[in-house]
Structures are given as C-alpha cells and as structure tokens.
Amino acid sequence: MMKNKTRLTAAALALAIAVSSSACSPNTSTVGSQAASGTPAAKTEYKYGKIDLLGKDGALCGAPIYIAYDKGFFAEEGFDVTLISADTETRKIGLNNGTIPLVNGDFQFFPSIEEGVQVKVVDGLHNGCIKFVVPKDSKITGVNDLKGKKIAVDEIGGTPHQVASVWLEKAGISAKQEDGEVTFVPYTDGNLELEAVKKGDVDVAALWDPLGSIAEESGDYRVIFDLSKDPTFAGKYCCFLYASSKVLKEDPEKVSALLRAIRKAQDWISKNPKEAVDIISDKKYSAIEDKELAEKLITSYEYPSTENRKANPERVKENVLYFVQQLKNIGYLKTNDPDAFANQIFEEVDVTSGT
To answer: How many H-runs (helices) and E-runs (strands) does the chain carry?
Structure first.
C-alpha cells in the first residue's frame, strides 16, 4: 500500500489485489515450511509432527496465522508447520480427508457445510474486512439508493455478494437476480471492479480489504458500506476458524493445540498491532507498503484478546446462529431450523485438552 494517499496508481492497485484477491480464502499453490524459513522453533521435537496450514495467500486478515508461525506459537504447541495456499476445492478435499486440519474462512462456508463439506466452526477469527465503494461524485449514499443499480462482486455466492444481499434485503430491496431490483456482476479481481465503477459499467464495487480502504484513501472513491461499522454486522465475527470433522473425531487434542497457538497470536496482535504489521510487512507475509493503513485495518478487525474471550464466552456460538439466520432469510441456506443447524455446525473445543 502506498504512503502517498492522493491517488491510486495501477501498480498500487495490482499490489493491493495481491493482498486482497481472496481475503479469507486462499487461491494459489505455493508452499513454505517453518523449518526452512529460518524461524527459530521453540522445540526441536514436535508432538504433532508436520502439518500444512493455509497461510500463503497474503491476506491481511490472516494475520494470526502469520504471527503464530513467525513467533513460534505453533512450534510451542508441537507443530512443524508448512504454510500453503490452496483453491476452494483443494481445501474442501483436505478438510474432508483430514490432511488440512484447520482453515480460516467467512460465513460463505455455511452453505458448503449444508452441502456436505465435513467441517465444524470451532472459533471466531476477526470482525469485518469488506467495504463497498462508489466514485466520489456518485449520487449513491447508502442502501436505499441501490434499487435498479449494478454491484460488482468477486463471485456470485461469495461473501461480498452474500453481505450485499443481507444489506439489501434488510432495507426491503430484493437481492434475487430474477427479481431485477439489483444486478450483481462478477469480476475476477478487485482491480477490474474498480475500473468498472470508474467507467460507469457498474455503480458499486464490493471489495475485500485492503483494496476498499486504499480506494477510499486515494480520494477518488467513497465508502458507502463498511462491514466493521454497519449495524447489521458490527461487533460480530465475519470470519471463523473451521476444523476438519475427521481430525476433530480422531485427534481432538491436535485441534485444541492449534487453537491455543492461534489464540496466542490473536491476543498478541490485539495488544501489539503496530509490531504485528511490521512483522507481516518486513517478512513479506503480505504485500504491505502503507503500514499506517495496515495498522488501522488490523485494529478495526478486533482480533479477540484473552480478556475479551473471558468476557464473552458465548460470542462465537451466538454469531454462528446470527449468520445462519441471516443467510436463511435471504435464501442462501435451506434449513428449516436455524437453531438446529447452528448447533450442528458449531463445536465447542476444550482448548486445555492435551496440556
């Protein structure tokens, strides 16, 4: 991200998309092992041996994975971690067969579970990381101006699309394509979404951070929706941690240990956001140039501290039910019993197990 906040360049946008193209969902196939990276390991012998974790997509909101890896929290809990990236289908296969024990993802995963992907929600990751932007001279100021408009998204059925659908439906505007009250237009990356908005091909771009924030900082675009601030979503997890049902059944202590490592990282980030950004940027976990903006974003994600978890022990379960209800209301879930489905997909993990 650029320190010069007066204008977005093509290079800056390309750099931003490297960070935000999939946000909480990885999309390539590179690997890098903790042992090979030169990161000091807390132990020379690993109780759980080698495992693969998704942590090479470059998304800023994946900070707890980067920090747990870099600061040796995974090693302390008995893991020799290799950071990988994988597309959606590879993730589903890995979760189903247990070769990938844990992933981070948003509530877009809920319909996949309903369709048979064998995973459970086991924890919350962070709050909002999506913004909707319009050109600075647009007459659109909010959701009530969107009837008859075109909205650019990364994919139909993806999280920005689902978020927009919930937002629209709560305002009394149908989000169903067949009703014709709004039109969703998919683009392969956020740069193309912004270009389409600029040309007038669409009216709104629904973007993963940091691209939405970079667009706003340029002065050429305005934010009309911020997932971290909108009343429907504010204060709630948008992204969760999902564990393989197979691993949960066969080796629950492994999941407990992974969650302990990630919780250590979340707590550390919540108390040291500037230092977290320095590590993520300097060690190239994410392509960050504007550290000031990155620190602002990481702070806005409100990674839960240890104290916050103790004060809100039911928060994850409550948020799962909330988003099940929201997705049911807009037709993205088929269940006739949201409470039962929420209980089915959430599993409380004893993080002290194996200690």
So the answer is: 16, 11
The reported pLDDT for the residue numbered 34 is: 53
Strands of 2-76 (E only): list them: 31-33, 50-54
Angle at 77 between CA 353 and CA 269, to 5 degrees: 105
Question: Which residue stretches of 236-284 are H helix?
Answer: 245-250, 252-271, 273-282
H helix or E strand, kind and range, residue 210: none
| Rg, Å, the chain Cα set | 20
Torsion 126-336-345-59 (CA) sign? negative
Cβ neighbours of residue 244 closer than 8 Å, sequence gap 6 or more: 94, 95, 96, 98, 100, 101, 102, 118, 119
Residue that the structure tokens 């067969």 belong to? 97
Edge-first strand listing for the sheet containing 239-244: 102-106, 239-244, 119-126
Residue 311, both tokens: 């004060």
Extract the residue ranges of the chain whose pLDDT is less than 50: 1-23, 25-33, 35-43
**What pLDDT is recorded for position 13?**
38
CB 257 within 8 A of CB 29: no
Sort residue 95 into left (φ over 0), alpha (ψ -120 to 50) or beta: alpha
Q: Under 8 Å CB-to-CB from 1, ≥6 apart: which residues?
A: 12, 15, 16, 19, 210, 214, 288, 289, 290, 293, 294
- Give the integer Cα–Cα distance in Å for 329 and 3: 42
CA angle (64 as vertex; 58, 69 as ends), nearest 5: 85
Bridge partners of 21? Answer: none
Quickly list DSSP for 124-179. Answer: EEES--EEEEEETT-S--SGGG-TT-EEEESSTTSHHHHHHHHHHHHTT----GGG
Dist. CA 140–CA 144, nearest whole Å = 9
Q: Which two tokens stand for residue 196?
A: 């389409």
Contacts of 275 (CB under 8 A, 6+ apart): none
User: How confident is the model over 133-159, as pLDDT tens digits?
Assistant: 999 999 999 999 999 999 999 988 888
Distance CA 204, CA 168 (A): 13
Element at 228 (helix H, strand E): none
